[in-house]
Amino acid sequence: MTAMVEAFAQRLAIPAVVAPMFLVSGPDLVVECCRSGLAGTFPALNQRSSAGFDEWLCEIEERCGPDAAPYGVNLIVHKSNPRVEADLEICVKHKVPLVITSLGAVPDLVAAVHSYGGLVFHDVIQRRHAEKAAEAGVDGIIAVAAGAGGHAGTLSPFALLSEISEVFDGPLILSGAMSHGRHIAAARMMGAQFGYIGSHFIAAAESMASEPQKQMMIAASAKDITYTDKVTGVGANFLAPSLASATLPDGHGEMTLSDEARAWKTIWSAGHGVGSTREIRPAAAICAQLIAEYQAARAAFCE
Ligand SMILES: Cc1cc2nc3c(=O)[nH]c(=O)nc-3n(C[C@H](O)[C@H](O)[C@H](O)COP(=O)(O)O)c2cc1C
Description:
- The protein starts with a helix and ends with a helix.
- The chain has 12 helices and 10 strands.
- It is globular and about 50 Å long.
- The chain is of the alpha/beta class and 303 residues long.
- Strand 6 (140-144), helix 7 (157-167) and strand 7 form a beta-alpha-beta unit.
- The protein has an 8-stranded parallel β-barrel, surrounded by 6 helices.
- 41% of the residues lie in helices and 16% in strands.
- It has one domain (3-209, 271-302): TIM Barrel (Alpha-Beta Barrel).
- Bound molecules: flavin mononucleotide.
- Residues 19-22, 24, 43, 74, 102, 123, 144, 148-150, 175-178, 196-200, 269-271, 273 line the site of flavin mononucleotide (FMN).
- The site of flavin mononucleotide has 26 residues, from strand 8.
């Protein structure tokens, strides 16, 4: 691990990042996770405007204070996102500790974040994207394996980590259906430095998901997750009951961000780990459980 990533890891209670989730993660969830010792993150696009995004960062910094774990922001780096440059400037202004990029891995963006000592983690579902991210100089690569919520990969985590580590010798962050501290410990044993956990926090009391969405999470198990490209044009995992009651886009032409936002409002994404969500709980309780489980798993394996 580089010194910068090491310093980031030392500010965490356990090596885990709570992943950014569209229409789910906002300041309340981020602040509770960071105060509990996990890196809380959110997509910049969860705020309607760059000005609103700036306000959220002010709020998060004020509520977290200096002792909380570092927070992160997800930027979608793609021509369909007209806000990316403005949002990056705001990240630089606030010295956002972790910027998570999706779709494009761009050297200029990495340089801008490095200029103030921030980190860039980039998410990938295959080796080719990891090669591009490595060339762009990112600090860590998020391996989004099969079973993850959102735009999940299709590869086994074992295969994906092995392939990425052939083209990138920096820190890896493993993602896909993690819901137990033991899973984070397992990710470390597999060669990743951090676990990356999304769906497990959808039913957190502080998440922005609606009450019906949280209840659907509680009722669901892995068999209720469907992988399809019919919603956004790219393969993603969804709660089957929300797909059943929805009208799917016609699939003609490229989707704009607003088409996609509309789709995600009524068709709810979640990963294969959904079966471990059994109640709505405060994020601090979810984090405390992950921390205790991780420590127990480490103790058991280090004996
Ligand atoms: C509802 C939902 C929305 C998501 N939105 C985003 C997003 O806006 N940007 C992003 O990079 N990843 C997004 N993801 C993917 C997560 O960041 C993360 O990769 C994934 O949740 C990890 O798998 P898990 O859900 O099985 O823990 C989303 C995932 C879910 C479940």
